[in-house]
Amino acid sequence: MTTIPRPAATRHTESLRMLLPQTVIQTRRLLTRWGRDPLTVMQALLFPALLLVMLNAVLGKQVSSFAGADALYGTVPMVSLVGVMSGSLAGAVTLGRERDQGLLSRFWVLPVHRASGLLSRVLAEAVRILVCTLVIFAVGIALGFRFTQGLPAAIALFAIPVLYGLGFATMVTALAVYTAKAALVEFVSLGSSLLMFFSTGFVPLAAYPGWARPIVEHNPLTHAIDTMRGLSLGGPVRDPLLATLAWSLGAIAVFAVPAAIGFRRASRY
Amino acid sequence: MQTTHELASDRAPTVAFLQWWVLARRLIRPAWRTGEIFTALLAPAVFTLGFYVPLNLVMTVYGHGLSSYAQFLMPMIVMQAVAFCAISAAFRAATDARDGLDVRFATLPMPRWVPFAARIAMAAHRAVIAIGAALVCGAVIGFRFYGSWWHTVGFLAFSLLIATALCCGADLLGSMSASPEATTQILVLPQLIFGMVSTGFAPASQFPGWIQGFARNQPVSQFVDGLRALAGDSTGNAGAVDLATLGPGLAWAFGLLVVGGGLSWRHAARRSA
């Protein structure tokens, strides 16, 4: 009779040195899980791609004629950011489900660095955002979108959704760990559709009536879209970029601590 | 003998009607209590705000053929309200199927159409509220009925018919899938394709050539064209109220009602067997 040796940790595993490999493993778990759920992938990739094609076919001509520039330079960034937001929401729902199923508390008793759980979510979110954005921009290029400002600007452009998405995800995570799931989903999807309708990605600022213009101008989505438009079509970049940085880093600063505390609480649930 | 007699009286039409009423109330009352019905009012408002405010000037400058974009967009606001009701109906049907409630109901001494009819009653009730909210939103942005009174009645009746037909189809999908989340996510797809690529937002002539045929002839466009003709317009360009305009839309709606209802009947029969 052979005895299988019990796996024994030869050294302390909750160390800072092990944080990176542990984070990578958990990130891979999250991404594998995401990739194997056809509905989530469809929601994150197919729906925004289809929305882009539809918006371009139905309203592209009219908006382009009104704006005097191809509407795609607003629509493509807008749809990619809307996709990022709905993806974050799906991620928050998954987080809530893992808490309810007790998975988070299972992870909590593993000999891994405490920070790896939350860090892996941030990392997985960033990878997911990048993949979604690349897909949307590929569809955009097929429809006629072009990067006219050179390679560095094009690369910088892809940092914007990641930045915006991480800020948004921090906020949604903070909300998700404190509120009921159903209310959160409705509230956030309603909010993000209103952000979309009242942004310069949908129609130019001049098309809005006077009372709506301040809302459109100070909409965080507007700043991110204007930055991405500047980096692709050309135009001012510095001001919308600074505003995007302020909104995103502001959201991270405000919601990171509640999100981390909430995650810790959810893990011990 | 006594037992058979009682069984027979259980099947009497008045009892079935009472059963239907009880099951319909089971769905309607909590919707009011939890404020779920509030979303039926909110959805048309958000849609109106989201599409009318940004697009009004753009579409007016480009031209849409009617006296105002509010008049042009109104059928789409109604369709959106109706689509929202259909998605709710699918969600409800899928929840009941997932929780095993359908199977429980199938063991009870009542006609097999009763749970289905109760869910449709709830959906129609929600549709009346949503269509009412859509009309209020339309009135706020400047939509008016220009036709005769029976055109207006026709508008309301046609809206309700479309709502019931779509809810029938959605209910069937929900009952068959038994997964509320998957069903509501999948239903975004037809809403996007049929809703966006329709004559509800822009005239078919403004679509790219390859998609014009679809945009002109698909069912949602037929619904929209019918409703637009019934609403009328001060310019007289809304279309004539005749069989050529209303026929295809009515045919789609009745077709969906008959096919959806029939398949639901069969589905219920299979489950209880």
From TrEMBL, chain A:
One CC-aspect GO term: ATP-binding cassette (ABC) transporter complex
Keyword Cell membrane: yes
Keyword check for Methyltransferase: no
A GO biological process held by the record: daunorubicin transport
Gene Ontology molecular-function annotations: ABC-type transporter activity
Domain ABC transmembrane type-2, first and last residues per copy: 39-266
Domain of life where this protein originates: Bacteria
Family annotation (PROSITE patterns): ABC_TM2 (PS51012)
Pfam hit, one: ABC2_membrane
TM stretches of this protein: 39-59, 71-96, 126-147, 153-178, 190-211, 241-263
Annotated keywords: Antibiotic resistance, Cell membrane, Membrane, Transmembrane, Transmembrane helix, Transport
InterPro entries: ABC-2_transporter, ABC2_TM, ABC2_TM_bact-type, ABC_2_transport, ABC_transpt_DrrB/DrrC, Daunbcin-R_C
Bilayer topology annotation: Multi-pass membrane protein
Compartments reported by the entry: Cell membrane; Membrane
NCBIfam families given in the database record: drrC, Mtu_efflux
Name of protein: Transport permease protein
Organism lineage string: Bacteria, Bacillati, Actinomycetota, Actinomycetes, Mycobacteriales
